[in-house]
TrEMBL record:
Superkingdom, taxonomy of origin: Eukaryota
Name of protein: Heterokaryon incompatibility domain-containing protein
Keyword Transmembrane: yes
The entry's keywords: Membrane, Transmembrane, Transmembrane helix
Transmembrane segments: 56-74, 94-114, 121-140, 152-170, 182-202, 214-232
The keyword Transmembrane is annotated on this UniProt entry: yes
Bias kind Low complexity: ranges: 1-21
Region (Disordered): 1-32
């Protein structure tokens, strides 16, 4: 992802071994590690990731606002407080009511999904919008309280959500705010569903047939199911992210940005230089490849090294056959020795990542990769 170098494929043993040429972090014209070029790539990656995140959040936020506007436009046509019209509603009215209900709950879901997990600013913005919408809706309902007493429960629920949203805004982190936001929405939907089911059953009994209130019960229940499943909510963001990812001009750069997170390029470089290690392949035991569980003791087979002094960054799947991987790696080693007359030094995750401090090393992977002369991939079934 950093070098963009061409890859030449060959087969060694039972696994395919791919070798990529040297990347920009290997050496500059003066023969030293080109940290400026790596810092540039990291910065570009963070910018690409920010653009991708903005597209995902912006799309969900815009869709939420759009469905909210459509709801306000359509509900004037179908929402009524005339009991006779409830009983006499025709098929067209039922269809319009269903569409209005879908727009109403879609607005809530889409706006609430807009903030990504660590976006505190947009989370507060969404909560402010929710508060404003619920207060406006409560004000509209108050106009009809003298005529229809059944509006009291809905108004009380809206006020409850306003208070809960205001409390959520006081939380320190985006994760805490979103946790309380979804809990508040879930409680509001649960109580609202009970309210609409009660009045739907009451109107059904009075009219002798289902009324348009039934659609509020159905859509509210459906929305509650989605809210109650975090994996479904995250799935919407993931699917939208994949859609935009396919059209990102520099998707690999965005991947680098996702690895390093919010750390500055300078900080990542400094940390990467301090934590970079490599192993002498001739000294590695078979156990370094054999297991598929982290083993902190394997760190002793690596030594601290300067960026640009490692011969290969070895990429492999922990779930491939260890015997085939070992055979392929040894075959590559023999080829390297015959060409260069010395044993290769490699970066291997099993031996070069501190398994007791994985997060710090994972953020530095782009730097570790750039500190190696080539990329060696043990390409197996998984």
């Amino acid at each position: 992802a950093l070098s963009g170098a061409p890859v030449a494929n060959g087969v060694s043993g039972a696994s395919s071994v791919s070798n990529a040429g040297s990347g920009p972090g290997r050496k500059d014209s003066a023969g030293t590690y080109a940290s400026a070029e790596v810092a540039k790539r990291i910065t570009e990656g963070q910018r690409a990731l920010r653009r991708l995140r903005l597209r995902v959040s912006g799309t969900l936020f815009a869709l939420g606002l759009s469905t909210g506007v459509l709801f306000e436009v359509l509900r004037a046509e179908v929402l009524t407080h005339d009991f006779e019209r409830y009983c006499q509603a025709v098929t067209t009215t039922h269809v319009l009511q269903l569409v209005v209900c879908i727009f109403f709950f879609s607005r809530i879901l889409l706006l609430s999904l807009a903030p990504l997990a660590d976006d505190a600013c947009l989370t507060r913005c969404v909560l402010v919008v929710d508060i404003a919408v619920m207060l406006a809706d409560a004000a509209v309902r108050v106009r009809f309280l003298d005529d229809v007493g059944e509006e009291w429960p809905s108004t009380a629920l809206n006020i409850m959500l306003v208070v809960a949203a205001a409390c959520a805004m006081l939380r320190g982190s985006a994760a805490r705010m979103q946790e309380h936001m979804w809990l508040a929405i879930g409680a509001w939907l649960g109580l609202g569903t009970l309210n609409t089911v009660f009045y739907s059953a009451l109107e059904w009994q009075r009219c002798g047939r289902p009324t348009t209130t039934l659609w509020w019960s159905v859509t509210s229940l459906g929305c509650l199911v989605v809210v109650a499943r975090p994996s479904w909510r995250q799935g919407v963001q993931v699917m939208l992210g994949r859609l935009f990812w396919a059209h990102v001009r520099n998707a690999s750069a965005a991947g680098i940005g996702a690895l390093v997170g919010n750390c500055s390029a300078r900080e990542i470089l400094q940390t990467g230089k301090a934590r970079f290690r490599c192993s002498r392949l001739a000294d590695l035991p078979y156990e370094a490849i054999q297991g598929n569980e982290p083993d902190p003791d394997l760190l002793r087979f690596s030594q601290a090294a300067r960026l640009g002094t490692c011969d290969a960054f070895v990429s492999h799947s922990w779930h491939d056959d260890p015997g085939e991987k070992w055979s392929a790696l040894q075959s590559w080693r023999q080829e390297f020795v015959s060409r260069h007359g010395r044993e290769p030094k490699i970066w291997l995750d099993k031996t070069c990542i501190d398994q007791d401090n994985i997060l710090s090393d994972l953020r530095c992977l782009p730097v570790f990769l750039s500190g190696c002369s080539r990329l060696v991939v043990l390409f197996g079934p998984t």
